[in-house]
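User: Let's play a game. I give you a shape written as tokens, and you guess the letters that built it. Ready? Here's round one.
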């Protein structure tokens, strides 16, 4: 970045809106420019933490670790910090391609982008939107002319409708001040939907039973390439008229194409993950092709107009070029997205598109097929989530122009940015840092957050940090032609036009909060809200009494302390007797784990512990002590289970300090009891702590009907699952 940009970037991102606008008006007046270059990522400057093994770590230190953006050179298995991520070094049992062995420092490896970040500067003019024109012979040009000649086609195109809508001041005030009104609808495949909006009540969408491709307004060449690319998901059962989408894709795309925000919490890596990925890639690419075609077409019109003519008709772009931001957890996900883009742009084998830096991309984002994981049995969902290159520190700019794609484009020359939350966090930086940049997020029109549940296991703070820095006025002009910038961007109304697509494997208050508090789309929102009928407890196959113990908390903020006091005063005393040996305590929160571990040490209880920071030798030692009964208690974190999925043998008594984030972890942990050969199942116990604030997690475990009864009653609930044995 230039000096000007560095100086601007150091400005506090907490400055008032008035200050931001005044700085921006100064930019408007001076039309100051800075070279288009992507900010280099900061070096990893944090010290080794080895948090899980630190014997003196207190709660305050745990908080500090959570807030660090980078860290853990000594042991990269740091889920709260997620520098290279637990996933990246998780294991000897995964094919990690370019990742180093457990605990190795990969920060100097350029493929991890920590020190030297490659950006393609050779193809700048080829992919410049400002200096290129629509190719006369291309199908794109004809499509654009066809649309230009048909005002009806233009007026009905959802892209044009959404981006050309001119909001009034009073509407913006209304969206900022008033609560949303909502309505319910039931769709054949998605189920229960909640539509919400602040502006006039939109007519409730109805699910299309059949898809007319012309009504989708797909930009060329997508009309012809999409059926071929999506063919793998279509079964012979599909009607001939429905050869474009699966039933799930049809309903999801119906919502996406109206530019409403969407929250779909039933994404499953094993079943529907890939068909969802294809659907949002189609939508994102369709949006970018239309936006770029509009700019190129207007370039030609401006070139042909008489000198001295000034027109406001060509406002067709944002303050910065990136239009789509795709947040995904691992490099493998980015690899799959780029492959889908390439497939969608290639009309046939003869018309291959030109992809810059493809070989480099394959090397850095692919995995080594020769490295085979050891023969360790893992659940199918684990294998699906952790397939391929699972490094979680990356970001890459993608520019698309007609028949060409440029990978590793500088962000200010990119149309699409694909990144992990950590990759975004390290470039956005923190207040006071000299090298930070988030201007490229100013004009994002579509934000896609896929597999949001995994970020709960990484570091959710990175997602919140991103949401605070998206669609802000840029601190520098970056050479933009202000005569081409849409008024919505100049008015700082970008966030009201941004569409957010959020996909997750589960309902969670933190994910819900992002959707409810950080999404301001004037078109409104659609959330899928199905309730679980049976719950994961039905998959427990061992005979086991389940005791659900309710704790009473005055409010949400007091739950953490209330749970701790309830546990040490009422639950733990029952397990101190030697007869209650082999007790595993499952702890979802790392903070709670640190607090419990310190308490156990202080009370000199006979215990061992395993968390996401624990090194391999420490894990083996703890498992052996626990199995032999040399240690009475085992403190066990949820993140360790998420990233490793080891079977812990020797469990006779289970305590869920809090309900698990993933409901199927409940049955998985309970079913570990059958791995104990000499266990006497008559003495097995399972105790679960819950409060009224755990309604969503509770429903996912015991089902909606039992949850309603349990929340109404203030008594402890005893359930007995007979299982298959």
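Assistant: Ready! My guess for every position:
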């Amino acid at each position: 970045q230039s000096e000007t940009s560095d100086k601007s970037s150091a400005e506090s991102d907490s400055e008032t809106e008035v200050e931001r606008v005044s700085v921006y008006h100064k930019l408007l007046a001076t039309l100051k420019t800075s070279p288009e270059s992507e900010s280099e990522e900061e070096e990893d400057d944090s010290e080794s933490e080895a948090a899980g093994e630190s014997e003196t770590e207190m709660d305050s230190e745990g908080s500090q670790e959570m807030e660090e953006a980078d860290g853990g050179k000594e042991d990269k298995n740091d889920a709260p910090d997620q520098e290279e991520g637990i996933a990246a070094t998780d294991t000897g049992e995964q094919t990690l391609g370019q990742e180093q062995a457990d605990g190795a420092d990969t920060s100097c490896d350029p493929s991890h982008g920590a020190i030297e970040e490659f950006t393609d500067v050779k193809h700048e003019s080829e992919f410049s939107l400002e200096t290129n024109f629509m190719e006369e012979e291309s199908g794109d040009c004809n499509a654009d002319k066809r649309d230009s000649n048909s005002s009806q086609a233009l007026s009905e195109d959802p892209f044009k409708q959404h981006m050309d809508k001119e909001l009034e001041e009073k509407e913006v005030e209304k969206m900022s001040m008033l609560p949303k009104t909502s309505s319910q609808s039931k769709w054949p495949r998605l189920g229960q939907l909640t539509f919400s909006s602040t502006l006039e009540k939109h007519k409730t969408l109805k699910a299309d039973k059949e898809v007319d491709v012309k009504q989708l307004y797909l930009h060329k060449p997508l009309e012809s390439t999409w059926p071929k690319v999506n063919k793998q998901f279509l079964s012979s059962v599909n009607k001939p008229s429905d050869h474009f989408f699966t039933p799930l894709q049809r309903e999801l795309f119906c919502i996406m194409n109206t530019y409403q925000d969407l929250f779909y919490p039933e994404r499953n890596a094993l079943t529907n993950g890939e068909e969802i990925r294809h659907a949002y890639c189609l939508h994102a690419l369709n949006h970018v092709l239309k936006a770029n075609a509009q700019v190129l077409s207007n370039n030609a019109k401006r070139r042909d107009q008489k000198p001295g003519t000034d027109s406001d008709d060509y406002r067709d772009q944002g303050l910065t070029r990136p239009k789509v931001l795709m947040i995904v957890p691992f490099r493998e996900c980015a690899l799959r997205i780029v492959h889908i883009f390439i497939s969608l742009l290639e009309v046939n084998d003869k018309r291959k598109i030109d992809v810059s830096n493809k070989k480099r991309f394959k090397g850095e984002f692919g995995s080594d097929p020769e490295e085979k994981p050891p023969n360790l049995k893992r659940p199918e969902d684990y294998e699906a989530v952790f397939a391929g290159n699972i490094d979680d520190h990356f970001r890459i700019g993608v520019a698309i122009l007609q028949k060409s794609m440029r990978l590793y484009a500088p962000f200010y020359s990119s149309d699409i940015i694909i990144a992990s939350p950590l990759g975004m966090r390290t470039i956005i930086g923190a207040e006071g840092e000299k090298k930070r940049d988030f201007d490229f997020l100013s004009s994002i029109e579509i934000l896609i957050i896929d597999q949001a549940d995994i970020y709960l296991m990484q570091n959710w703070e990175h997602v919140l940090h991103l949401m605070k820095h998206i669609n802000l006025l840029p601190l520098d002009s970056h050479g933009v032609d202000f005569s081409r910038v849409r008024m919505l961007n100049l008015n700082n109304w970008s966030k009201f036009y941004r569409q957010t697509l959020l996909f997750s494997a589960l309902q969670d208050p933190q994910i819900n909060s992002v959707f409810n508090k950080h999404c301001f789309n004037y078109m409104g929102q659609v959330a899928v809200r199905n309730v679980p009928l049976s719950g994961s407890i039905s998959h427990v196959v061992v005979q086991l009494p389940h005791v659900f113990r309710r704790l009473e908390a005055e409010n949400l903020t007091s739950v953490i302390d209330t749970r701790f006091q309830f546990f040490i005063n009422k639950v733990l005393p029952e397990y101190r007797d030697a007869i209650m040996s082999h007790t595993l305590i499952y702890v979802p929160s790392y903070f709670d784990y640190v607090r419990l571990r310190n308490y156990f040490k202080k009370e000199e209880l006979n215990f061992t512990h395993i968390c996401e920071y624990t090194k391999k030798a420490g894990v083996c030692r703890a498992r052996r002590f626990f199995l032999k009964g040399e240690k009475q208690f085992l403190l066990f974190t949820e993140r360790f289970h998420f990233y490793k999925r080891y079977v812990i043998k020797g469990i006779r008594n289970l305590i869920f300090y809090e309900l698990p984030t993933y409901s199927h972890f409940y049955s998985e942990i309970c079913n570990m009891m059958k791995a104990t050969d000499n266990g006497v199942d008559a003495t097995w116990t399972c105790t679960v702590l819950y409060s009224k604030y755990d309604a969503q997690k509770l429903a996912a475990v015991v089902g909606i009907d039992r949850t309603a009864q349990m929340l109404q009653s203030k008594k402890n609930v005893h359930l007995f699952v007979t299982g298959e044995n």
